[in-house]
Fold this sequence. Notes:
5-stranded mixed β-sheet, 2 domains, alpha/beta, 248 residues, single chain, Udp-n-acetylmuramoylalanyl-d-glutamate--2,6- Diaminopimelate Ligase, Chain: A, domain 1
Amino acid sequence: MQLMQLLxxxxxxxxxxxxxxxxxxxxxxxxxxxxxxxxxGVTASQALIDVAIARQADAILVHHGYFWKGEDARLVGMKxxxxxxxxxxxxxxxxxxxxxxxxxxxxxxxxxxxVLGLDVAGQSGEQGLLWHGSWPKAGSARDFADHxxxxxxRPAQLLGDENQRVSKVAWCTGGAQGFFEEAIxxxxxxxxxxxxxxxxxxxxxxxxxAFIAAGHHATERYGVQVLGEKISHLxxxxxxxxxxxxxx
Length: 248
C-alpha cells in the first residue's frame, strides 16, 4: 500500500485536525513510499526502532512520537540517533497522540474501559479526554485497584481510603493527574489514570475519592493495537504490536 494512502485512511478514522495537540499527528519522519509491514508500539524509542529494523518494517506506528512543543528542536543527542536510524533504513514514523486518546472506538480511553469492564456514560473535560461511567461489579477501592492491577498486569498505586465503595468511575489514560479535580466534580468514587503527582494524595483523602495510578505505558497500550488491527484487516498490511517493557 502507498504510504500516503495509508495516512489518508488513518486520518479519516481519527480526524486529527479536530485536536489541539502537543506534537504533530500523522507522518513525522518519511520513509519509503510503499508500506507492507508495520511495527507498532506505545513510544518511538530506540528499542522499538531496533525491533522495526530487525523485522524489516516499512513503518513504525506509535502513540508517543517526536517533536513535542517546548522541547529542543535541534536534531542532537538521542533525537539525532533515532531519526538517523529511521532515515538510514528508510522507515516512516507515524504518531497519533490525542486523536488516539479520545476516539470513541479506537482510542486509549475506549479500549481501557473495555479491558477493565467499565460501562461508559460519557466524555467531558478538555477535548473530550476525561471519560466517566461505572464499574458494574462495584466494591471497595482496594477491590477496584486489585482489579485494575490484575487486568493490566502491573501493580496499581492506590491513594485514598481503600474501603471507599466504588461504582462510579472516571478515567483518562497516560499523564492525566491534572484532571483529578474535574473527575471529582463529576461525583465519581474513583479516578484512574497513568501517573500521579504529590497533590493527588491530599485531594484523594480530603474529597474521599480514590485515585489509582495504573502506569502511563500500561494504560496506553491498547489504542495503537486496535488501530494496527484495523489497518491489517482493511488493507492487508502485516502489522505487529511490540509491547516493550516500561514500568512507568
